[in-house]
Design a protein that fits this description.
Strand order of the largest sheet: 3-2-1-4-5
Radius of gyration: 16 Å
Shape: globular
CATH architecture: 2-Layer Sandwich
Largest sheet: 5 strands, antiparallel
Oligomer: single chain
CATH superfamily: BH3703-like domains
CATH class: Alpha Beta
Helix content: 25-40%
Structural class: alpha+beta
Order of helices and strands: HEEEHEEH
Distance between the termini: 40 Å
Length: about 120
């Protein structure tokens, strides 16, 4: 199993791969939605004038697997983070990074609603 730092480094590599070569940025944001068995990504770069531009994300199965692994680590190893279904990974132009774990109750309610709709009536 990878450590958090190794997963973060892999996310940096994936995010940098999505940034067009030579593109200047203040920060790049990778927004992550994680549910049981599902991971979705979208990313942005923000320039020195605080203009936000969408990046095409090429992160696939490999990165989704890393996010599920990160979730397991954050639930079981110190420092333990509360249950999360969204995260925001930020890479700053100086190489520093930040991860914010988020619980989105609306998202969970929507998922629970779909799950209740497909269960057969007993």
């Amino acid at each position: 199993m990878m450590r958090q730092k190794e997963i973060f480094n892999s996310l940096v590599i994936g995010l940098i791969d999505d940034i067009p070569q030579g593109e200047q940025f203040e920060k790049a944001e990778l927004n992550i939605m994680r549910l049981e068995g599902v991971v979705e990504f979208n990313s942005y770069i923000i320039d020195g004038e605080n203009k936000k531009r969408t990046l095409e994300v090429s992160m696939g199965y490999k990165y989704a697997k890393l996010i599920h692994e990160l979730y397991n680590i954050t639930q079981n190893e110190p420092p333990v983070h509360t249950n999360w279904n969204r995260a925001k990974f930020t890479l700053f132009h100086d190489g520093k990074m930040q991860m914010e774990y988020i619980w989105d109750q609306e998202l969970q309610d929507e998922v629970d609603g779909y799950n209740n709709d497909i269960k057969p009536n007993a």
